[in-house]
Design brief:
The protein has 8 helices and 17 strands. About 35% of the residues lie in helices and about 25% in strands. Helix 4 (about 160-190) packs antiparallel against helix 5 and helix 5 (about 200-235) packs across helix 7 (about 265-285). The strands form 6 sheets. It has a 5-stranded mixed β-sheet, with helices on both faces. Strands 1-2-3 form a 3-stranded antiparallel β-sheet, with no helix packed on it. It has a 3-stranded antiparallel β-sheet with strand order 15-16-17. The chain has helices spanning about 45-50, 130-135, 145-150, 160-190, 200-235, 255, 265-285, 325-335, and strands at about 5-15, 20-30, 30-40, 55, 60-65, 65-70, 75, 95-100, 110-115, 120-125, 135, 140-145, 240-245, 285-290, 310, 315, 320-325.
Length: about 350
């Protein structure tokens, strides 16, 4: 839910002196916004407002034919002055770019660059630990553990979502193998109506349930990733976000596209993440551009020549640069400039 369909006024409605109501505006139908009243019998909303808490975007659920509004609150934090390498101009006029490289070990590697002064302002490696167990502090620009994990530093139960995905993939592979074996046995015995049998339907239902679990986990990661990237972009006053254009991999061979795009629906996950980032950027008036993805991790971000990649490390034999391949790709993405002759010639 975003501010286009929800807006809270939270002024008291004193029609009933015994019960306190707060007014909100909600648009459940396109282009139709209606005013509704939220009952506050225990005066929770009033107490949160008096204690310097501000409401966040809610979540709406339907239960027993009733519309439930789950409204979270966040404590107001006074933003401190943070040091950002920028020119003497206003922060809104500064051109700050963000390059995002989507991967496997780190879901996203981010490089933030001041395009006017040509310096790298910050870098972030977003793994499931940062997305699920930590929160981005908008006052310092760093990640910190959530309150549930910050009390005892010796005992931290991290969200091991990668092992869950690997286990689900193994289950899908086993179920698919049993499905193929059962189908082959039925064909050998000349059984034509095997798809109407109970065992076939049970196997198909188990397979669909596993794929539904994978979809829910991927969707959760996409939502956390897009929200985290928007917080980082707002902190550094980013004006342009650059991502890889992965459309070439749909028509390329596995060797040319890369094995990381060929297996486990990674290409689907990356496309969903890019769509979520584009939607969030539109709401925050941030421009999103796509750059060619070929050789972004191999091309040296210092001298611009092709280097050698071995695993997660990229080395350049020309200038001697050696750094993480994902960080090198993020730098190449944020440094990319469209050739001037690309658009010329089409105007004749």
């Amino acid at each position: 839910m975003n501010r286009d369909v929800y807006c809270e006024a939270f002024h008291l409605d004193l029609d009933d002196p015994k019960t306190i109501y707060h007014s909100i505006q909600l648009g459940l139908v396109s282009r139709e916004v209606r005013s509704m009243r939220v009952k506050d019998e225990r005066q929770r909303i009033t107490s949160m407002k008096t204690r310097a808490f501000e409401p966040l975007l809610p979540r709406i659920t339907l239960k027993d034919r009733k519309l439930l509004l789950h409204l979270p609150f966040q404590q107001k934090i006074e933003k401190k002055e943070h040091s950002k390498p920028s020119s003497s101009k206003d922060a809104n006029d500064a051109k700050v770019g963000m390059g995002i490289d989507l991967g496997l070990k780190h879901i996203a590697t981010i490089s933030i660059r001041d395009e006017e002064n040509d310096i790298e302002m910050a870098r972030y490696f977003l793994s499931p630990k940062e997305l699920l167990d930590m929160v981005f502090d908008e006052t310092t620009g760093k990640f910190r553990y959530q309150d549930r994990l910050r009390d005892d530093e010796n005992v931290r139960h991290h969200s091991n979502i990668k092992s869950t995905l690997i286990r689900l993939r193994q289950q899908i592979s086993d179920i698919q193998r049993r499905k193929n074996e059962y189908e082959q046995r039925c064909l050998e015995r000349t059984i034509k109506n095997y798809k109407e049998r109970v065992k076939w339907n049970v196997i198909c239902r188990q397979l669909s349930q596993c794929w539904a679990s994978v979809y829910r986990i991927n969707l959760q990661l996409v939502n956390h990733l897009s929200n985290c990237i928007m917080k980082i972009a707002r902190f550094w006053n980013v004006s342009t976000i650059k991502v890889e254009d992965l459309r070439f991999s749909m028509r390329s061979r596995k060797q040319a596209a890369g094995l990381f795009l060929a297996f486990w629906q990674v290409h689907w996950f990356h496309s969903q993440a890019q769509q979520a980032i584009k939607l969030q950027s539109t709401l925050h008036d941030i421009r999103v551009t796509k750059v060619p993805a070929r050789n972004t991790s191999k091309r040296c971000s210092c001298c611009g020549k092709l280097g050698n990649r071995s695993g997660k490390q990229c080395t350049c034999p020309h200038c001697g640069l050696s750094l993480d391949a994902d960080l090198n790709a993020a730098r190449n993405i944020v440094n990319y400039k469209k050739p001037k002759h690309a658009s010329s010639g089409a105007s004749h």
